[in-house]
């Protein structure tokens, strides 16, 4: 019985004793190793490269992409306002309605109706021809 108590006390003492904290490749002999020094130099170079590349793409995003998106939005807005003005002009010339589109055979062909009717799921009566009427 005393052997069990002595062994338990010895285990408890070794568990509470301060241990030498040792991480990966922190031994003094390894720090003098040229391969270890080369590894540390390569790791430092990779970290530096990642930092500079991240900074480069952040600058590209702020100073190139965001202004390009703003210019593109302004251009599209101008094109769409010109198009809307042109459509209104055509409506004004034709008594307030758009002229009828030509009834070509290859336009708006339906082999069979959709489950919800002849119009597509994205039907817009202001821009699309109503196939229910045809």
Describe the structure.
The chain is 59% helix and 0% strand. It has three helices and no strands. The chain is elongated. The mean pLDDT is 85.
Care to give the gist of this entry?
The protein is an all-alpha fold and 134 residues long.
Structural class: mainly alpha
Strand content: under 5%
Element order: H for helix, E for strand: HHH
Low-confidence stretches: none
Mean pLDDT across all amino acids? 85
Number of helices: 3
Mass-distribution shape: elongated
Q: How much helix is in the residues?
A: 55-70%
Topology:
Elements: H1 2-16, H2 28-31, H3 34-93
Question: Main attributes?
Answer:
59% helix; 134 residues; mainly alpha; 3 helices
């Amino acid at each position: 019985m005393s052997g069990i108590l002595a062994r338990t006390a010895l285990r408890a003492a070794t568990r509470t004793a301060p241990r030498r904290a040792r991480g990966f490749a922190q031994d003094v002999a390894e720090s003098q190793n040229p391969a270890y020094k080369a590894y540390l130099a390569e790791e430092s170079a990779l970290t530096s490269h990642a930092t500079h590349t991240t900074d480069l793409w952040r600058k590209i995003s702020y100073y190139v992409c965001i202004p390009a998106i703003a210019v593109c939005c302004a251009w599209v807005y101008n094109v769409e306002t010109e198009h809307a003005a042109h459509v209104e002009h055509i409506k004004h010339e034709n008594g307030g309605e758009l002229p009828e589109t030509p009834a070509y055979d290859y336009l708006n062909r339906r082999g069979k109706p959709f489950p919800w009717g002849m119009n597509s799921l994205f039907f817009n009566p202001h821009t699309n021809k109503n196939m229910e009427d045809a």
